[in-house]
Amino acid sequence: QVQLVESGGGLVQTGGSLRLSCVASENIFNFNVMRWYRQAPGKERELVAHITSGGSTNYADSVKGRFTISRDNAKNTVYLQMNSLKPEDTAVYYCRLNSYYGDDYWGQGTQVTVSS
């Protein structure tokens, strides 16, 4: 079973930056879709960014222009670069990888807190 380990969360001031990492125990080339989600207390989980094996990306309107999703196949890692952070970005962030074969793996979550 593939394991996903997330890191990079923390506490930052408004306007600051963080880079989240999601490291897989297998070659991420096997996964055709890689996503980042977030969930804040009292809110539904939402998709914030998406990248395909072909390199296509998509973002939620709330983060477009501020967040960038990327991958490094050699390091089996998916990243989420978060710039110009706002208090409303405060949430637990989760990575999710899906394969052509129906596999569905989630990271353990990493807390991002943005103070005013």
Shape: globular
Radius of gyration over all CA atoms, rounded: 13 Å
Strand pairing plus helix content: what structural class? mainly beta
- Largest sheet geometry: 7 strands, mixed
H/E element string?
EEEEEEEEEEE
Helix tally?
Answer: 0
Oligomerization status of the protein chains: single chain
Extract low-pLDDT stretches: none
Total beta-strand segments: 11
Report how far apart the termini are: 40 Å
Helix content: under 10%
What value does the average pLDDT take? 96
* Share in β-strands: over 45%
Give your account of this protein's structure.
By secondary structure, the chain is an all-beta fold. About 0% of the residues lie in helices and about 55% in strands. A hairpin with a 6-residue loop joins strand 4 (about 30-40) and strand 5. The protein is globular, with a radius of gyration of 13 Å.
Record the SSE blueprint.
Elements: E1 4-7, E2 10-13, E3 18-24, E4 31-39, E5 46-52, E6 57-59, E7 67-72, E8 77-82, E9 91-99, E10 104-106, E11 110-115
Parallel strand pairs: 2-11
Antiparallel strand pairs: 1-3, 3-8, 4-5, 4-9, 5-6, 7-8, 9-10, 9-11
Short description:
The chain has 116 residues and is mainly beta. 0% of the residues lie in helices and 55% in strands.
List keywords for this structure.
single chain; 116 residues; mainly beta; four-stranded antiparallel sheet; 55% strand
